[in-house]
Specification:
InterPro entries: MMACHC (IPR032037). This protein is α+β, with helices and mostly antiparallel strands and 265 residues long. It has one domain. It contains nine helices and six strands. The two termini are 36 Å apart.
Length: 265
């Protein structure tokens, strides 16, 4: 029943399915998210509607992705990690909330307008999951007119995580008892913010930005090898790992540089 659900109970239920797979979930109100963005990017739900952002931690690769490959559930027509995330979240939602209307949006999905279905880093910020560092956070910017892309930093994992999905619980309204969390500003100095944004924008391939704060855990060597491989070449890598026995369709190459920069890995 909808009247028995609140932010805490939804988080507990999702955690019971997703924590063991290497995911974290953070609830927030739609209104907090919409307040950060222009109306063209708003979620079309009442401000008090409950939403949840889902992150993958370094454990996801070994706890969810490799077992997903072993299960042979994946198809070769799209990115295997995307398929794994969708399988994990769909299974959790259907089991935990069989009678609820839940709008699930994934980080790789686009609207017909080519805009993303949700802004992952804004969702992570308003939920308190990670601090979204942007050009506007730096006083006396040294970059002139150059556009610098922002990046989220997790207080425990630094940059060794990814924002995977948004869940909107269409019939669950949250009252004033839920207070908006303040994300931890774990890169407080101007100099460190500059170092973070420059590492992310100019040297994102070397992943040094991920270590801007000492992480409690990083990706395993196998996971680093996978995400360092170009998306179009990952099926060939999986074949060398023994997960594919025959050649087949290649993955969608829409996972371009910007997707990777925005934390797809």
């Amino acid at each position: 029943m909808t009247d028995t659900l609140n932010a805490e109970s939804v988080q507990v239920k999702l955690d019971s399915f997703l924590t063991k797979l290497g995911f974290e979930v953070y609830p927030f109100k739609v209104g907090w998210y919409n307040a950060l963005l222009p109306s063209s990017l708003h979620l079309d739900y009442p401000e008090s509607t409950l939403a949840v952002v889902v992150l993958s931690t370094p454990d996801m690769f070994e706890q969810a992705f490799l077992p997903f490959l072993e299960s042979r559930l994946f198809q070769r027509l799209s990115d295997p990690v995307d398929q794994c995330v969708k399988h994990s979240i769909t299974s959790a939602v259907s089991q935990a909330f069989p009678s609820q209307r839940v709008d699930v949006r994934y980080d790789y999905e686009l609207l017909p307008s080519r805009k993303p279905k949700f802004l992952a880093q804004s969702a992570a910020h308003v939920s308190g999951a990670a601090f979204y560092y942007q050009q506007s956070n730096v006083k006396d910017q040294p970059w002139g007119d150059k556009k610098m892309f922002g990046v989220c930093v997790h207080p425990r994992f630094g940059g060794w995580f990814a924002i995977r999905a948004l869940l909107v619980f269409e019939d669950v309204m949250i009252g004033s008892e839920m207070l908006q969390p303040v994300p931890i500003d774990c890169v407080p100095s101007r100099e460190e913010k500059i170092r973070l944004l420059e590492a992310f924008n100019f040297r994102w391939q070397d992943w040094s930005y991920r270590d801007i704060v000492p992480p409690v855990q990083t990706y395993s060597q196998k996971q680093k090898e996978y995400f360092s491989t170009k998306p179009a070449e990952r099926f060939a890598l999986l074949k060398t790992w023994g997960f594919l026995s025959t050649e087949g369709d290649q993955p969608d190459e829409s996972l371009d540089t910007q997707n990777q920069m925005n934390g797809h890995g």
